[in-house]
Amino acid sequence: MDASVESTKEPLPGVAEPGGPEEASRGPDAGTVTPPAPRPPARRHPRAAVDIAVPAALAGAVVAVLAVLHTMLARPLWYDEIWRPHFLSAPPSTYWSQLAQANTPSALGWAVLIRLVGDVAGWHAWALRVPELVALVALPVVTYAFIRRFAGPVAAGLAAASLGLSGVVVDLGTQLKPYSVEALASLVIVWLWVRAPSTAPWHRRLGWRTAAGLVALFSVPAALLVIPLAAVDVVTAGYGYRYGSWRVGWRHRLWAAATAAPAVVICGLHTWLFIGHQSSQRASQFWNTQFLAGRGPLGGLRFVARELVRIFGGAPTGVDRYDPNLVHPATDPTFAAAWLLAPAAAVAFLVGAAALARGSTISRTVWGIGGAHRPSDRPATADDGGYVVAAVLGALVLALAASAGRYWPFGANRTNLFLVPLLVTVVGTGGDRLARRASTRDPLAQLDHVRRRASTARRLGLGALVRYCRLAASGWHRLGRPGREVARAALVAILVVLAATPAASASALRPLWRERGEIRPVALMVDATTQTRRLYRPGDVVVAGGRLARSGWLYAMDVSADGPFLASSAKQPGPVGPRVPTGATVFLTAVGKGEARAALAARRGPTPDRLLLFVLVYDRAGTAGELASLRAAGWCATQTFDYPGTGTLRVLARCS
After folding, report:
1. Could you tell me the pTM of the whole model?
2. Which three-class secondary structure state does DSSP give residue 278?
3. Rounded to whole angstroms, how far apart are CA atoms 595 and 607?
């Protein structure tokens, strides 16, 4: 046999070659084999250590901030909080009918969670705020982990810090409002969708999308995210086979629609049946400046442009810049918001959106970027950042359309906090890409790739833009080194502004610290109802006056387990009696028009011994007229108890 052929023979499995490693490992006895030496323990990868340390530091920083502001957590519920537990604590027999009168809608999951906390831990202000506090601590951690899928640790850490340490976000997260939970839910919904892109097996997509639909039950605006995500699934599945049989494309579209259907159905029914039932306040004038409704074409364009500047000029991007009851960063009233933060964030957003979409299912199948036209050309485990871009842009477009019908305010306001983590994700990814380009030898390298995008841009109607970009790129290249340095300086300037965003965001913590001990409007309802319970005797009638007094008064009187907040209220003489029956209470919608006298005249039964008249602070202007009407009916004030920022309680007896 030829020696060259014989040398290529491989040993049979399980048979050791003479002098081979297996024979060398044998011991002195013929039948024994020395076990192999144990491997040294694997060292933890540096990335794993960083990705544990940074989220832990972010969570610790938020906890430290809450510890410093602990006096805020013990404050009583104020007007914009106290109405929520009133409706959520209603008995089952009247729950549905009362919920229709709620000031703003609440999500089913959040409502059940608050009801559960109240029934288990008691209806205390601090206990009802716990879900929001947990979401507040988890928000920067989850945001960092999500951004790390697309960007480096520095960009992810700065972006998550700008969100978690924002004074505006902390202000909202320390109140009984659902915005922190909704922001966390939005991030989880998109993450669950990204876990199984349209190239994944159908059973994985079905499972993760159903889970996203269940998470949507904790967010009022979840439909603004689920609809664009489901649309991307269907569109990309159909276009993925545009060069094959159209029947194959439609078959995959139907499969994509079927896998997204559970999330759409859950979210749609929740929005239609539960949230729509609570939309009786659409006629309110509070959000008029945030609605597209009632504006002409030019007014609408100015409105959209103004709100986009306000969104990108926020610290972090998209945070509330409208509500006067919230703290705001130091940059908001200055030129820095519109002339520094907004341009830098807008550039980073565009770069981040391009980076996230490049190589995703959307770009490869719909836009034709990347050279692959079939979903099977991409691995099913690849991160699909195109879903993030679709969710953000789709939510903005749907929110703008909803604002035209006065269904949802558009722009940088607290109701859109659910979009802030996703906006921060795109901006953080863009900042990461800008930093990489600024650190290269030639920041203008590869800018001529726009030539390869010309066909795509023509399909999108952007051919002229590509031509201008190509001319600009060639012009910068002709400048040589000066052009490269100017481009590098511009990138560095943008990065400096983006890196300063966490500091600008955290600057709102200073006014929050300064106002930590202040009593917010209508926060002393429990003090007023506690004193009413001291004074009330059978045969008295309680009159609560004020258009906004009913929900707060009923919660403080019938449900709340808190005691008086002011020391002066707690030291009032006399024991606190039982809760006053609702049948012994009369509510006035307008103070000063004689409604109390008319209500007393319409009551059946004996004449009351005394009147306990409470007038909300917003209706004090009509107090004199109401007292004059009651004096004409023979009632005179004998005692007065004032509650700053909340209202005044008076005891009226028969005039002598």
Report:
1. 0.87
2. helix
3. 17
